[in-house]
Here is the input.
Amino acid sequence: MIQARPIISSPHSSEIEAVNYQTVADSPIDRILQKISKMELPEREHFESYMRHKWRMNHKPSTLVNSFHAVSSFLTFYSGLGKSQLRDIMRDDIEAFIEHEQDRGLKVTTARTRLNSLWAFLRFLIEQDIINEHILKRKIKLKVPDFLPRAIAPGDVRKLLGAIKETRARALILVLLRTGMRIGEVLRLKVRDLDIRERKIHIYEGEKNCLGRVVYLSDDALMALKLWLRKRKPQTEYLFPGLQHKHLGYTQARNIFVKYICAAGLQDKGYMIHSLRHTFASELLNAGMRLECLQLLLGHRDIEMTRRYARLTDKSREEEYFRAMAVIEQGGIHGAY
Here is the structure.
């Protein structure tokens, strides 16, 4: 017979349990589930199951929050239609919801994001045999304006870099400008992600699509990083530390960028910190880099995302135009149309 060992209580055991409970309660999924439990939603147990499913699938906290807002907004609207059973969802309900979101001033890009989150929820309900699959036969599509990315003009880049005197700011802005990394990726960088000898930065998980990649360091970015590493206090593992052993926040990074944009006299040009990534892509394309290489450096899954920069900055197209126009202007076109 196996004798059970006695449980030895510790004077601090209750404190440890409280700390552990607090850690669990503070997880993103628990915060979301607590919010759902306080909401009057149709068959909210399916909503809770869906959010747990996304948590198990290792979705990012930001994705969970976006899904929560989209689905809770729809279910609140759906309840307002006098419906209480999810199996009664119809295409008309979804169309009415999207129109409602747009009527209250939601941007078309945000409305499309919410619609995509809603489709994912409906697919989950179909897999659980809660609603019929016919609802997804013909999806609603929102046409989103295809904006061209805004890059910083070469002369303005020189002005910006000439205005930066502080070591950390120079390292931050040059890493963004010369690697094309997203701001969130740079802020989450840890010192161990750098390979100074090989002039590489390893991004183990992309910010938007979880796509890992390697980017490279130019001479000026490498020098700026070396100077910052000498000066940086090793209080945290992050390359750009912030408060309480965390990384620098987005607002702080943006304020650094805005400070030097103003110092360079460029405050009226409409440049944002994300313009550094656009500038990286535009300059490499103008220097002759193939689209496929740029796609990998930017971490785009779809090359059509990368192709937007080609529409903006393709010098070969510009040269072709002026070469052809010179022939036309010189009367070099013959024959009838």
